[in-house]
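hiii, so i know i said id send this last week but things got crazy w the move. better late than never?? heres the sequnce for the chain we talked about at the cafe, plus the structure i predicted for it. fair warning i was half asleep when i ran it
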Amino acid sequence: MDKPTEKIMGPEAFDPVHLPLRSLDMPVADEVHLWHLDLGKLSNPLNSTEPADSDALTVFQQRTTRRFYLRLILGAYLGLPGKDVHIIRRVKGRPELAPGLASGTLNFSVARSDGCYLVGVNSGAPIGVDMEMAARQPGKPMALAQRYFSEREVASLSGYDQEGLRRAFMHTWACKEAVVKASGMGIANQLCRFSVDVDPDNPPSVLDMQDDDHKAWKLAFAEPAPGAIAVVAARQPAVRLVGYRLVKQ
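okay and structure toks below
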């Protein structure tokens, strides 16, 4: 029997949106707006002579730069300047809009890898996004899986050869990170409480979950940049991705 397949949203499907940002329409129904930012091609708001992902920036400056663009995007949805968008962190660390700023109506999640920054936005159910580089070489992936993943996932991963294991592990990790971010539970002691399909050639899905209905969760896969793995998770009937790429004027 042939494996199930689905069309992957590749880099060409991310429509360019130029700065400065104007008002943006809220995502509807099952839509998730997925924003990809190549920080090396965007201006550094702290110093316009350097790219936003410059190695010369301190960790604090890099975080401030990412927050600047996040607030800019969220503000365009809310009809506010970025400086008026206030973001708080919940106990487990998930960022969300401060009370009074459409909190619970506009949800977002962020991920970063190398010089790339990913922002997922939807209305209604909380979402989670994760992004990894496919070429990343995890140290001892089977040992990591045995420590953090479910028994079902470990059993499935054990059937892969070395190269197949690396690819399947990265796919599994991205799926699980996205689900954990959406749930707001935090990573600690949570990755083993549910299972995802470890096969990177199958549409991403949740196979079982403790304390919740796994069928209520939907995952979607995208490739926002060559070699990047992005997974979106949401507890909603479907996830329909709409991709955008923020670019300079």
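btw The radius of gyration is 18 Å. thought thatd interest u
miss u guys!!
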